[in-house]
């Protein structure tokens, strides 16, 4: 039994696959130049699926098909604040991205290149989303 439960901000991110070639969308934060998967914090009174769709849409203007969660991670940041992330396999409706002011660049990258650009936890989420995507293709 856990003595002290994690009190955390929930962050959700989408691994968006291009409808054309299966590339993955990565976006660059304007604040520090770091690359990440699109997404953000879950609002109170918001379902998980609606929250990740909203964040992806706000940051990219894409109408993502949020398929299924594929990975989770809990940690404390450098300030000691609890964080909990959920990553989703998503399909993009097209490749036309309109970025929010939070980001200053984006790229659709082959999965291996996307993994090299992202943090280790986000790269692991891409790998998990690849497996979910392959399973969905096999099921069709």
Query: How many beta strands in the DSSP annotation?
Result: 7
In the CATH hierarchy, the architecture is: Alpha-Beta Complex
Rg on CA atoms, Å: 15 Å
Report strand order across the widest sheet: 4-1-6-5
What is the CATH level 1 assignment?
Alpha Beta
Give the helix proportion (percent range).
25-40%
Low-confidence stretches: none
Beta-strand content bin:
35-45%
Tell me about the largest β-sheet: 4 strands, mixed
CATH superfamily: Nucleoside Triphosphate Pyrophosphohydrolase
Q: Gap between N and C termini, in Å?
A: 42 Å
Which term fits the overall shape?
globular
* Secondary-structure element order, N to C: EEEEHEEEHH
Structural account:
The structure is a single chain. This protein has 140 residues and is α+β, with helices and mostly antiparallel strands. The protein has a single domain (8-139), classed as Nucleoside Triphosphate Pyrophosphohydrolase. The chain has three helices and seven strands. It has helices at 48-60, 111-117, 120-139, and strands at residues 8-17, 24-29, 35-36, 39-41, 65-76, 82-91, 103-109. A four-stranded mixed beta sheet has the order 4-1-6-5, sandwiched between helices. A hairpin with a 5-residue loop joins strand 2 and strand 3. The longest helix has 20 residues, at 120-139. The radius of gyration is 15 Å and the shape is globular. The protein starts with 7 loop residues before the first strand and ends with a helix.
Q: Which keywords apply here?
A:
four-stranded mixed sheet, Nucleoside Triphosphate Pyrophosphohydrolase, 140 residues, single chain, alpha+beta, 3 helices
